[in-house]
Amino acid sequence: MSNIHKSITELIGKTPLLELENYERKHGLEAKIIAKLEYFNPNQSVKDRIALAMIGDAEKKGLLKPGYTIVETTSGNTGIGMAAIAAARGYSFRVYVQDNVSEERFKNIKAFGGEAIRFSQVPEVQAVLDETGGDFVAAVRTLKEKVLSKEKTNFFVNQIENPANPSVHEATTGPEIWADTEGKVDILVACVGTGGTISGAGRYLKSKNKNIKIIAIQPGPGSLPNETDPLPPDITGVHPFEGVPAERIPHTMDLSIYDEKYEVETYQAYEAAKEVARTDGILVGTSSGAAIFAATQVAKRTENKGKNLVVILADTGLRYLSTKLFEEA
Predict the structure, then answer these.
(1) pLDDT single digits (tens) 66-89
(2) Is there a catalytic annotation at residue 210?
(3) Catalytic option among 47, 206, 213, 274
(4) pLDDT for res 1
(5) Please, what is the Cα angle at 275 between 286 and 17, to 5 degrees?
(6) What is the pLDDT of residues 221-232, one digit of tens each?
(7) Which of 15, 109, 296, 309 sits between 20 and 30 A of 37, alpha carbons compared?
(8) What is the signed CA dihedral for 176, 40, 258, 210, rounded to 10 degrees?
C-alpha cells in the first residue's frame, strides 16, 4: 500500500531525538544532551501538537462548528499551527499576538489565510498590559471577557486554560521520549510558557519512572520588564511561574510536576542557540537556546555524570532571522 498522507494533521508528532555530540565535546560534558527536535513538525514547532489537539477536542465536544471562526491569543507559534490546521479543516482563523514577536510570525499566519491582530490594537488589552507590566495571562482574560464574549460564532481556544494542551503532551510527547530512549532518560529540561509541554510530558515520564528529574525554565530577572528597563529583550514565549502571583500562572501549568526551577537570561539563550547552530547544524529559536543553556549547566554537575538529559527544543530559528538572535556581537 502507498504511504501517502491526506492531511498535514497526520504529520504532527513523532519528532526525532538527536544527541548534540559536537556541542558536548566542545563543553567537555560527561552527560548526554539529547534534543527533541520539535521543528520537525509540519509547521516547525511544538505548538502543532496542541493546535491539533485543542481543535479536535472542540469539534468532538460540539464547541467548534462549521462556519465558526477559531480565535486564539499567542506569542506566535500556536497561532501558526492553528492557522495551518484551520485552513486544512476549512475554518476561518483570527489570532491576537503579542507586539514584540518576530515579523515572520505575522507573515506565517497571514500566509495561511489567518487574521493577525497585535495586542496594542485592542485598547482594553493594552491597558491591562500597561497596568500589570506585561501580564500575558491577565491580558488574555481581559480579551476573553471584554471582546470575545460578545461574539457568537467563534471558538476561543484559550491555550492557557485548555486541558487538551497538557493532555496531548502526556499522550504523545512523553511516550515518544520514553520509547526513543528505551526508557533511558534521567532528566527532562524544558521551558515554561503555558506549561503544557513540561506538565504533560513530565507527568507521563514520572509515571514510568518516578526518579526522573524535571527541570523547568523561566526567564531570569534581567529578561523581565522592570523600572529601569520596561522593554528588555525577552525569551519569546517563556514566562515566569515562580515568584509571581498565582493568578498569573496558566491553569495548564502543573506546579507539582517539576523538581527544579532554572532561570535563564536572554543573552544566555542567544549564545546557546547561536553556538549549537555552529557545532551541530541545528537552527533553533530563543526558548530552545534557553533550554540548551540550562541543560548544559545541569549536565556539568558531578552527580549527573553519565546521565541522559532530554531537552525539548520548541521551534525553528528560521522564525527569528528578523530579530537580533543571530546577529554578530
Answers:
(1) 999 999 988 779 999 999 999 999
(2) no
(3) 47
(4) 61
(5) 75
(6) 999 988 888 888
(7) 109
(8) 10
